[in-house]
Structure formats: structure tokens, C-alpha cells
Design goal:
Layout (H helix, E strand, L loop, with lengths): L11 E4 L4 H13 L4 E2 L3 E2 L2 E3 L11 H18 L5 E11 L4 E5 L6 E8 L7 E4 L5 H4 L13 E4 L5 E6 L4 E3 L8 E10 L21 H12 L1
Antiparallel strand pairs: 1-10, 2-4, 3-6, 4-5, 5-12, 6-11, 7-10, 7-12, 8-9, 8-11
Bound molecules: fe (ii) ion.
Fe (ii) ion (FE2) binds next to loops.
Length: 223
């Protein structure tokens, strides 16, 4: 049988490098100078109100990395995707603090970049946002990534992640003695109200395709 994997959930990641210490110091300085904060999914952690990173010379590098990666993701999805950085905030989690499971409403993509973490700082865990594989395929579902319920990423300084904003995620408690610092952001499309052209056909699966043809088509796409 041919198999097509539709409705995939992309998560982009890359390890970047910059002066983590300078950025971390500035983040802590902002918290300690009573920069406005808020409580959303953070339990015992500190989360800043939205902040413009490029207004602070020490944080400019993170702004530049985030905007560059957004551009790369936009290109990866479609030539005219048009994605823009929307809002940005700082997360500071002392030992024991964590973030409950949540999604980011009214935005297209979200992301986070790690500034000060080690392997015990608390993983980010993504939950399958479309259905519950474990309920439908309880036997051996773990043996196939097609049916995983959860995936997690270990925090590493400089790692940047981007994911669909509707994808539920949580952050495990910080068990490290290091203060966990990350900077998160939302990404919007550069246009909001695009009418679907009613003449545009819904993508059609070619059921006459042989398995060989299907393999050829997929390998061509990758070239
Ligand atoms: Fe989040």
C-alpha cells in the first residue's frame, strides 16, 4: 500500500551561539529592577510583560537570531508565507518552578530560545495536539513516531525551538541549581485576512499512483 503522512506537526530547532552570560545578566537585571511581569502558565516562575529586545544592546543579538530564524522557517514552509515577530517575553524559573500545559492563542507560531540552562533545568514537552494516539493505538504505539503522544527536548544554552502555536506544551520543574532563563516569542503572519480562492482546488490524492511512482515523486521533492 502507498502511505502518505498528512497533517504533520513541524517543530524546528537549531543550536545557536552567543554570549549567554551577558544576556542572562541583563534578563536578571530587568527582573530585579521590577520590570513589569505577569502570570499565565508559569507556576512560581517569573515572566516579563512583552519586551522589545532591540531596545537593549545586550539583548539585540537574541532579537537578531529570532528574526533570522523566523525568516528561515517562513521560507521552509512556503515562498510567500510572510511571518513576522509579534511579541516577546522573558521567562525566569528558579529551582522548583515550571509551566503548566498551554497553547498560544491568536498567533501562528511560537518559539523559545534558551539563555541559561543545564540538563536538569526542565524539559519542554509537546503533547500531540490533534488527537490522543495512546487512546486509539495503545499497543506498541511507542514503537512508531507516527503515533507518539509526547516528544520532549532537553534544554541547552542557545537552542532555539519554533512550533505551531496550537501545539500544547509544558515545561517540567527546574531541578537544577542554575536559574533557568529562556526568551519566548510569538510569530504572526504578515497578513491576516486572505480569502481562499474558491476556484482553487482542494489538494487531490492520486489514487492511481503505483507504489513505485509514489517513491519516485517523493525522492524528486527532496532533490
Ligand atoms: Fe508556551
Amino acid at each position: 500500500m502507498n502511505r502518505e503522512n498528512w497533517f504533520a506537526t513541524p517543530i524546528w530547532f537549531e543550536r545557536t551561539s552567543f554570549d549567554f552570560e551577558t544576556v542572562a545578566k541583563k534578563c536578571l537585571e530587568l527582573r530585579d529592577s521590577n520590570y513589569p511581569n505577569r502570570k499565565i502558565s508559569n507556576v512560581d516562575g517569573w515572566q516579563s510583560q512583552d519586551i522589545k529586545l532591540n531596545e537593549y544592546p545586550e539583548l539585540q543579538i537574541v532579537h537578531d537570531i529570532i528574526t533570522q530564524k523566523i525568516e528561515e522557517v517562513a521560507k521552509d514552509i512556503a515562498p510567500n508565507m510572510g511571518l513576522l515577530l509579534d511579541n516577546v517575553w522573558i521567562n525566569i524559573n528558579e529551582k522548583g518552578s515550571y509551566n503548566t500545559e498551554h497553547v498560544h492563542p491568536i498567533t501562528a507560531f511560537s518559539g523559545t530560545i534558551y539563555i541559561s540552562v543545564d540538563e536538569n533545568s526542565g524539559q519542554i514537552i509537546f503533547n500531540n495536539g490533534q488527537y490522543s494516539p495512546i487512546k486509539h493505538y495503545p499497543f506498541d504505539s511507542l514503537n512508531s513516531p507516527l503515533f507518539w503522544d509526547y516528544v520532549h527536548y532537553n534544554p541547552v544554552n542557545g537552542l532555539i525551538l519554533m512550533f505551531p502555536a496550537w501545539l500544547p506544551h509544558k515545561v517540567m520543574p527546574n531541578e537544577s541549581d542554575i536559574t533557568r532563563i529562556s526568551i519566548s516569542f510569538n510569530v504572526k503572519q504578515s497578513f491576516y485576512f486572505v480569502q481562499r480562492n474558491s476556484a482553487q482546488p482542494i489538494p487531490l490524492v492520486d489514487t492511481t499512483e503505483t507504489k513505485e511512482d509514489s517513491k519516485k515523486r517523493k525522492s524528486k521533492k527532496r532533490e
